Amino acid sequence: MAKKTVKTKNDNKSAHKASDYDTKVLQTIPYYENLHDETLNVIKAAGMEIGNWLDAGSGTGVFVKKAFMQYPGASFILADPSPEMMAQAKVNLDGMIGRFRFLPPVSMHELRINDKCDVITAIQSLHYTKPSVREDAVRICYSMLNKDGIFLTTENITPMTADGVKIGKENWKRFQLHKGKDEKEAAKHMERFGVDYFPITIEEHLKLYRNCGFKAVEMFWYSYMQAGFYCVK
């Protein structure tokens, strides 16, 4: 029997409206702020001079705001398929004196820019790309990087076994309950798994990035059912 799509009245592909996202995501993704920090730590450790930095699936712009505070000389390009998310990003970055370019709403597998980038980040966004075009999206990011440029992504992942999925979802649900969600809301979020977003295993992530041509592929984060990867061109 085909899976039934979980219907949500929303203005983007996440479980939360753009206006509520920055608050609700902290109840949803364990260690969400740490995940941002560890992504930036990897970039620091790479010791790069950064010109253009593309954030694909930039959402409300909170991650770019954090990145700008550490790399005020970089030129940031923000891309997201949701007009409402982009509007919220403009609010969050309003008044900051920096180089910010907001692209028209665009999905990752349709993203094209003429500028080459030193850094491309995709924070909790690539898992919304359907399997049929996921590799296309990564190859596009590869093509937009300069040599020795770095691609970093954090995603919801799926465990390698049915038992792992069951235990992982229950553990994730318990986190959300601890953070203040009620039973119905937490259970509804678990129903989105494999229906409203499309997680793959860690092994599938590593294979995908290697197949796209990256010379270095590493995992830098794993917690609950989220993982982070960086890849060097």
Folded structure, characterized:
- By secondary structure, this protein is an alpha/beta fold.
- The longest helix is centred in the C-terminal third of the chain and has 17 residues, at 162-178.
- Helices cover 39% and strands 21% of the residues.
- Helix 6 (162-178) runs antiparallel to helix 7.
- The protein has a domain at 34-158 and 204-232: Rossmann fold (3-Layer(aba) Sandwich).
- It contains eight helices and seven strands, in the order H-H-E-H-E-H-E-E-H-E-H-H-H-E-E.
What does this entry show, briefly?
The protein is an alpha/beta fold and 233 residues long. The protein has helices at residues 21-28, 32-46, 62-70, 83-92, 131-144, 162-178, 183-191, 202-211; strands spanning 52-56, 75-79, 99-102, 117-123, 145-156, 216-223, 226-232.
Question: Would you spell out the secondary-structure blueprint of this structure?
Answer:
Layout lengths: L20 H8 L3 H15 L5 E5 L5 H9 L4 E5 L3 H10 L6 E4 L14 E7 L7 H14 E12 L5 H17 L4 H9 L10 H10 L4 E8 L2 E7 L1
Parallel strand pairs: 1-2, 1-4, 2-3, 4-5
Antiparallel strand pairs: 5-7, 6-7
Helix pairs in contact: 6-7
Q: What portion of the residues fall into strands of 2 or more residues?
A: 15-25%
Reading the helices and strands in chain order gives: HHEHEHEEHEHHHEE
CATH C-level class of the domain at 34-158 and 204-232: Alpha Beta
Q: Separation of termini?
A: 42 Å
**What is the strand tally?**
7
Main sheet strand line-up: 3-2-1-4-5-7-6
Morphology call = globular
Can you give the mean pLDDT? 91
CATH topology description of the domain at 34-158 and 204-232: Rossmann fold
> How large is the count of helical segments?
8
CATH superfamily of the domain at 34-158 and 204-232: Vaccinia Virus protein VP39
Q: Rg, please?
A: 17 Å
Largest sheet: 7 strands, mixed
**Spans of 5+ residues with little confidence (pLDDT < 50)?**
1-8
Instruction: Quickly give the CATH architecture of the domain at 34-158 and 204-232.
Output: 3-Layer(aba) Sandwich
Alpha-beta content class = alpha/beta
Q: Fraction of residues in helices?
A: 25-40%
